[in-house]
Amino acid sequence: MSVAKATRVGVVHHNRMKADDGYTLFAPQGTKDVYLIDIDGYVINHWRMPYIPGCHARLLPNGNLFWAGQVKGALEYGYPEEFSGLGGLVREVDWEGNVVWEAVVPMQGHDFQRRENGNVLYICFDTPGILPDDTARRVVGGRPGSEFNGQIWGDCIYEIDPSGSLIWRWLAYEHLDPEIDTMCPLENRSQWPYLNSIWICADGNLLLSTRYLNQATKIAYPSGEVIGRYGRGELAHQHDVRELANGNILAFDNGSHRHTLEPNYSRAVEIDPATDKVVWEYKSNPPSDFYSPICGGAERQENGNTVICDSVSGRIFEVTQEKEIVWEYIVPMTGFKQGSTINRIWRAHRYPTTYPGLRGKNLDPRRLPWENRIYGPDSWKRSYVFSAGS
Amino acid sequence: MTIAGAMKKGVTVHEAWRTYKGVTLLTPKEGTGAFLVDMQGRVLHQWDVGYAPASGAELLPNGNLLYSGKTTGSSGIDAGAGGGIVLELDWRGRVVWEHEDLTLHHGAFRMRSGNTLVLKRTEVPESLAEEVQGGLRESGKREDQRMWADVVHEINPRGEVVWEWVSHEHLDPTVDRICPICRRDTWGHANAVLELADGSVLVSFLKTNTLAIIDKRTQDIIWRWGDDELAHQNCPSELNNGNILVFDNGFHMRGFNFGYSRVLEIDRCNGKMVWAYTGGGGSMLHFLYSATMCSAQRLPNGNTLVCESTTGRLLEVTADGHLVWEYLNGLPAIAMEPSRAHSCMVYAAYRYGPDYSGLVGEAAGPEQKQFAPGAGELLRGPRRKEDDKEEAIRSRLEALGY
């Protein structure tokens, strides 16, 4: 469902009795801004960055913003368009926007995690990850002949320490099995398996979203071997795979190239890794009304609610375990893509009022009168509504 | 859409001086009939047929409604199938002709001769089914291992089958390959059939992404198009110049997980796409998208009426892609139980102008004659102050040579 038909922006629904309270962080695509809003939609902080996001930012427990920016897009490098979500620069900035730390990370893409000790884990495309010819031949799936210059680029995960030195590296092709980890037959064989999220599990191992495989893959850290495969048969080009406190896996199941003739739909799914079965899901009614073919996020809150990011519609909403929508926000900020106005965000993060990173911060919206005049509640009635097809 | 019901309903764009004025027949997916609305979106007439639709209803040149209904569920065959009855109803909703068969599916087509082309199913012989390529080879129950193919029947007004075409006798397993992520329970999976001006028959096969033209006399497939281009298309139609207009849904698109829809006009002689409408969409943009159903109709003034089914949105665009009319469906406007989907999906929509024989022809009764040219107000709506202003501006521009 395109945002084109949404006539309202900002907080369009809020059930205070059932919604969690907190602050939501997001980086509108095509803009160089990162915003933190409160539950009423007031802008509490605004960081102005040097590049558009590649792809999102997180608020660290120490109160600083950790952000990745896109220095150059895939096409500018001469790569095919499916090498999407590229970044290239990671930065830690304080509440006022001063740069505390940064690293140039060429070919970084999609997701990153920053450890407490300052190390940064990030997904990237790099030449060491290119599959050797005999491995590439064994990869099952994808459109025949669609390799990039005859090669399949395997994803890599790099870990750098605060000095920028590479201290750990994981190359997908060294650990995945082409015969088991088969890829979607409709995608291009330029990339395998296409990583778009990393999550550090409670046991220190890593949970990855391997999108073209339509599965979540768990690897051991630091050995890198595959120790778990989940969600095949249920997931369809998913994003944002996370491990929950109860040990289950939560993912944003986009629904592109789903193996069904039903109209596409997205959903947030919770999978029990012990049985590999779906134990909870949120879909809209009818399901096709909620569909984000790309990007997307799902975050479980402490009170059991789930904050879902419907990226392509520029919509963040919170649902209860009973699947009732109790908070909904349509992003009023816009960027450009291929000449059209969009209000998409790659992923949103919700931080409860008790989050350590917010301690001691000035959370008064009156600190940012201009941002609130343009994007705050007072502006919503006058907001411009994006129109399609003209 | 959002909980806040942020969807508008009704006519949201209306450039009255560029539209093709008429009435629009739409078939809501969640309804049991069809509605006729005017350019302002007001309901002028409706038929309550009593069956859920198996395809979009059409208003025939004789003034009757041709409606395909569902008497069967999906019965193990891929979602979207189901049908079982084709009816012709007069303006008052009385059934004047019907054809019932458990294997009927999707839509029917009334030929010039008065016969009707329908789609049915038959099982593919197991040895042939083995040779069919593509699709998901999943292990499963016995159900999954049967393969069904389409049969085209030409039915005369007395209900007799006067011509039959069995698709699996003519499709080629090595050429007509099933989409790699579709189930192998149907081969071809026709979703539309029509008669062309030269007497041949065109069938749209969903799972093999093909438009096929069949020579009635020899039963051969004499033209195929779409294997590399289409992605689960629907609603082909023939234009006056012989070109084929089709709605290419962009579902299960190759190389893109972010599929987008488009309306294509194809020159039959050289197989080239001579016109396309995407709403400005393309890779990563989504201004026109509906995974299933949909319709596209070229209007006499050169505009095209497009139905984006899953969002319940009808749009009329000019040849250069400018949107001049948009209607967001809210029908049927009845309360649904909480468990039922409250979608406003529209299976298909067709526009009929004031000179359409189905509205003003000899067969038209007194209720239909209200749409005659003299009764312009009913079609255009009452004259508003803005219309006078528009008229004044338009004549001024014309006088200046624009």
Net shape of chain B: globular
Q: Biggest interface between protein chains, with counts per chain?
A: A-B, 49 and 52 residues
Uncertain regions spanning at least 5 consecutive residues of chain B = 1-6, 337-341, 372-380
CATH topology of the domain at 115-293 in chain A: Lipocalin
Q: How far from one another are the termini of chain B? A: 42 Å
Q: What oligomeric state do the depicted chains represent? A: heterodimer
Task: Count the beta strands of chain A.
Answer: 28
- C-alpha Rg of chain B (nearest Å): 21 Å
Binned strand content of chain B = 35-45%
User: Helix share of residues of chain B?
Assistant: under 10%
SS field, number of helical segments of chain B: 6
Strand order of the largest sheet of chain A: 1-25-24-23-22
Strand order of the largest sheet of chain B: 1-28-27-26-25
Overall residue-averaged pLDDT value of chain B: 86
Q: Strand portion of chain A, in percent? A: 35-45%
Mean pLDDT of chain A: 92
Structural class of chain A: mainly beta
Largest sheet of chain A: 5 strands, antiparallel
